[in-house]
Amino acid sequence: METTRIVQVDAFTDEPLAGNPAGVVPDADDLSTEQMQAIADEMAVSETAFLRSSDAGDRRIRYFTPAQEVDLCGHATIGSFAYLRERDGLESGTTTLETNVGVLEIELDEDGTVWMTQEPPRIREVELSYDRVADALGVDAAALEGASDDIPLAVSSTGLPFLIVPITYLSDLGSAEPDMNAIETLTESVDAAGVYLFTFDALERESTLHGRMFAPGAGVPEDPVTGTASGAAGAYLDRFGAFDDDFPDELRLEQGHYVDRPGTVRVRVGDREGVRVGGRGVVALEGTLVVPEDDEDDILEA
């Protein structure tokens, strides 16, 4: 019976059982698409990364949610390279990664921070009523309108598109009661992967903002800490002049506290490398998994 090694890495944190858990399959060259999807379903975390050889970069990663393949995932990328450093002895420096959105540059710092250079930003304003967005998110429409005087509702992408929605206070963010069906319909209407709801009213003094991300259409009702959405949010803030002429050299985005998986994403915008997302990770679980035959739909055995 064929087995494969499987790892869970908690990304955007230094503490196990915090941040965003990602599945990592270190040797996935012999796995079919159907097998990778079945493994991701069994892992039941928001994304599982499958590391493969590549002719275009130093390595390739394919990403799967429990429901579907996605083109890019920030926390699973951070988790994969944190694993390679901790278990495979990957040295600090720059490497290249082939993904479905192209070949990206990954930099590993001496302290273990993984930096992911994302795609050039693509940002567009959208015409949505605040009442519709508020109903989908389960928040007060006035809390959205009050936060959006200078920064509008928009879809931003640095690899994956997200509807970026500012809200006034942390209490408004924390009390959101999202309607997942309505959010899925909303995101489909603007061609976005999910909704990133944020406030500048953060928990920590050094933090730039606090965010929550909902992507039920991808099988992820609420993602604890989201690298792709954080990069998109950083590009959005730059595009709409959220800090006037004093844009910070580095943004610190809090996320995950409302699902008991707190973490922090570091984002750098506007330097010569483009939008860069950084964080650390820690291996929390290792084991093996039985791989099903390609034509099997049965639940995998742990």
UniProtKB/TrEMBL annotation:
GO terms for cellular component: cytoplasm. Gene3D superfamilies: Diaminopimelate Epimerase, Chain A, domain 1. The keyword Isomerase applies. One of its GO terms (molecular function) is isomerase activity. Pfam families: PhzC-PhzF. Keywords: Isomerase. InterPro entries: Phenazine_PhzF-like. NCBIfam families: PhzF_family. This is Phenazine biosynthesis protein PhzF family.
